[in-house]
Amino acid sequence: MKPQIVGLTGGIGCGKSEVAAILARLGAVIIDADAIGRQVVEEEADVRDRLREDFGDRFFASDGSLKREELGHFVFGDPERQRKLNALVHPGLLRRLHAAVEDARKRGAPLIVVDAALIYEVGVEGMFDRVVVVAADELRRIERLKARDGFCEDEIRLRIRAQMDLSEKIRRADMLIENNGTLAELDLRVGEVYRRLTS
Hints:
Oligomer: single chain
Order of helices and strands: EHEHHHHEHEHHHEH
Radius of gyration: 18 Å
Strand order of the largest sheet: 2-3-1-4-5
Distance between the termini: 10 Å
Helix content: 55-70%
Shape: globular
Largest sheet: 5 strands, parallel
């Protein structure tokens, strides 16, 4: 039986990375889209050249590496800058993503999970058999992000508002994992989803 290819997404602070870690422990192969995006920038000189051309030298360190956090802050909340950045990075990212999925399939993975924040925003949900959305109440998300990143509440709310509305992701999802409880409860929910996806 061919393994299902699953897109895993959710809003900031919902616990998507924790869900990915549990799925990995259960046997899924996790493909991290953000890590692949970093590889594209680090390894593809033409992408770096275009980034330098479009955004300027100030986002590059003396060793030629991209200052990702600074560039992220610069494009944050500006749709045109985000569109320009995505147009440069996404072609290489999607090419590598497809190759990684094919490699996992050849290795006989029981389940292939692509951990990606922008599945619906970029319009790539069609490449997956199912899309699983991880969701949590806004107050819980704020608590988690304060503890994890040290952001103030206003900045967190700004970041939440800058993303696609979570209710829209939930509406479009094939499966939903609610993460408002304990880690033990999340383990049980993710285990059930894993069994459904691999049965």
